[in-house]
Structures are given as C-alpha cells and as structure tokens.
Amino acid sequence: MLGVQTRKQMLPKYEPMADYGFLGPDSVSWKVWSHPTSYVLGFARAVTIEHFDPNLAAAVVQSGGVKYRPSTRYGRTLRYFAMQLFGGAEQTARAADVLVKVHSKAVGHDPVTGSTYDANSASSQLWIHVTAWHSILKCYEMFGPGRLTPAEEDQFWAECAEIAKLQTIDPAEVPANRAEVHRYFEEWRPRLAASEAAQDMIHFIMPLSVALPPSMPGWQKKALAPAMWLMSKGVISTYPRYMRDMANLRQGRVLDLVARVGNKALHAFFERSMNARLALFDLLAPQAVEIAAPAILGIPPRTPRVWGVREAQEHFGFAIPAEAHHDIREKQRDRVFNQGVKPSDEGLVESEQHIGTMQTA
Questions:
Q1: Is pLDDT at 40 greater than 60 in this prediction?
Q2: Among 135-144, 214-223, 302-311, the least confident range
Q3: % of the chain at pLDDT higher than 70
Q4: What pairing do the DSSP bridges indicate for beta strands 107-109 and 116-118?
Q5: pLDDT exceeding 90 applies to what percent of the chain?
Q6: CA–CA distance, 350 with 117 (Å, rounded to integer)
Q7: Cβ atoms 171, 164 nearer than 8 A
Q8: Which residues does 252 contact at the CB level (< 8 Å), separation at least 6?
C-alpha cells in the first residue's frame, strides 16, 4: 500500500500511457469510472448481478476461477475494465483480441435452462457490459457526486456504446439513455434465474473480503473488516427488491440508510485523499493500478490522441471481435460438444501478459 505522499512524489511510480485510448479526459466516463465508488461498490454490484444470467452463472461455476483464485480474478477483470477506460489504444485492442481467445473456452451446457452457453455470444457480452456500466453509474450517483446532467448522461451511454466495440457486441444494441437501460433490464427480467449456483456465487462474493490478497496478514483483514462490511451493505442497498429476493439477500430499510450514509462519507474521504484512493485501488486490484493511476493523477500520455475503437482495430491489425478467432472458437466447441472433453487453455497463458497474472499473491 502507498504511504502518505504528495502528488508530485507519486508521479514517478507510473508510466504514461501511449495515448488517451478511446475516451480521454474530456469524456464523462473518465469522471465516473475514476471515482472511488467504482473500485469496489460499482464493480462488486456488477459482478454479483451478472450471475442472474443462468448462462453466465454456468460458465463461472464450471470454470471455477472465481472460487479458487478470487483475488486474481477480481484483479484481472478490473484491469481489463481499466484498460477499456484508461489504457492506450493498441494495448487495449490487443487485450480485447486475446480475451476472445480466453472466452472461447467458456462454452458448455447450462443445467438450469438445458441449453448451451458461449461466453463470446453477443447477448452474453452485452449483458455483462450493460450491467457493468449501469452499476458503475448507479454507485456514482448513490454514493458519489450524484446524478449526471442530461447531456452528460447521453454522452456516458454513447461512450458505453463505443467501448462495446471492444467486445463481440453489436454497438447498435447498447442502450442509449436511462429509459432504454431500464427497458433493457425489464426485458431481461423474465430470463433471469435465482439458481442455486447464482445464489452461491453472489453470497461468496458479497462479503467482498474475497477480493483481498490471500497473503494479507490476518490483523490487516480484521482492521479492514468494518469497511468491507459497510461496502458490502452498500452494494446490497443498490439492488432492486426483486433481485434481493432472487439472491436471498435480507436487508431492511434502516440498514440501507446506514449503508448509504456511511458509504457516502467513506467515499467522500477517498475522493479527497489521493493517498487513500490509490492505496485502496492498489490493495484490491494492484494489476489495474498501473493502468488507471496515470488518468487519476493526470499524467499525460506520450501522444495526446483519442482513437475510435474500429479505427484502432484496423490500424493495429486486429479483427472486429465478433469476427475474430473463429478457428479457435470452433475448436473449443468441438472439444466440448462433440468430443465430450474439457476445452483447452488456449489463450489463457497469452492473456497473462496483457490482462494480468493468474497467480495468487
């Protein structure tokens, strides 16, 4: 964790990005995603609610990654989100390309619906994408500065659609405003499942202590326990009632109020203190700090350019994700659905140099 330092002392710790990537400091998304409410509250809300998609829950449970290496899974995922928002264009486009290979192994049979799942499907990727962006914004509004202006909100969702081009998503399917986001979730509601697997994963993640490094001394975990408890209750307070019922999360209005007031105060402190802010980030997702810190600290990139996603993919030689690596994807599907064997780990080792290590600290 970082000691007490001035901003000037912090600057040499981080390398500037090659460029501003796909958004840049004038974007609304930088303001929202760089706020401390994103690091734990928004992210935890997203990765728990995601499990109501039975296909996603099946993929997560059958891969086992969240259960046996939760801290590195958290760190890798947050690093990739940080790259989408703050990373340089080439490194992010490359990571997105590798991620298609990684997701190609997440295919199988969904025991809840009786159908098959494919993590690279456009529908699955859109669910993850919208859930993440909506959760980050909701926590920013509830525990941070409050609602965006209408113009800022329109820009936020337009930027969400642009970043969706890094996934196998049709950007035209991304909701364009608050009303469309609400409609999207209402349309998904009949398809959500409060399965045993979904509830198990939500209850496993929700204490939030799973994100702490396994090597952290016990006394430090105990010292952080009150803050982790408060943030966990804050995440639950953002759930609509029907999702709480589905997840079997019991929390009354009084505790909701306590969680909201407490988290607003806690995250106001993180917003005021750059030391505390980066220490929190470094503690929970050290793999993501080197990507996000230059933006948070205002370190200019080597080239002050903002790219379009499709422009960068073409320039740096990467296929549109929906059209990428069909040979690998078909090979994995053949192994699982025709040969009846496990998918290979193709792409996983390669992903470590781009998305972060899978080894626990």
A1: yes
A2: 214-223
A3: 96
A4: antiparallel
A5: 78
A6: 23
A7: yes
A8: none
Residue 107: strand pairing partners = 118
Taking every pair of Cα atoms in the chain, the longest distance, rounded to a whole number of angstroms, is: 59
φ, ψ dihedrals at 18, nearest 5°: -65, -35
Q: By C-alpha distance, which of 357, 302, 352, 319 is closest to 21?
A: 302
User: What pLDDT is recorded for position 3?
Assistant: 57
Instruction: Measure the CA–CA gap between 247 and 195, rounded to whole angstroms.
Output: 9
Q: Which residues contact 354 (CB under 8 A, 6 or more apart)?
A: 91, 94, 95, 98
Mean pLDDT over 80-105 rounds to 96
Query: Domain residues of the chain, as ranges?
Result: 16-342
Residue 360 CA to residue 210 CA, distance in Å, equals 12
Q: How confident is the model at residue 2 (pLDDT cuts 50, 70, 90)?
A: very low
Residue 41: name the closest of 196, 185, 230, 188 by CA.
230
Give dist(CA 347, CA 100) in Å, integer.
Answer: 8
Do 161 and 176 meet the contact criterion of CB atoms below 8 Å apart? yes
Render pLDDT for 179-216 as a digit per residue (tens, 0 to 9).
999 999 999 999 999 999 999 999 999 999 888 888 88
* Mean pLDDT, residues 72-78: 82
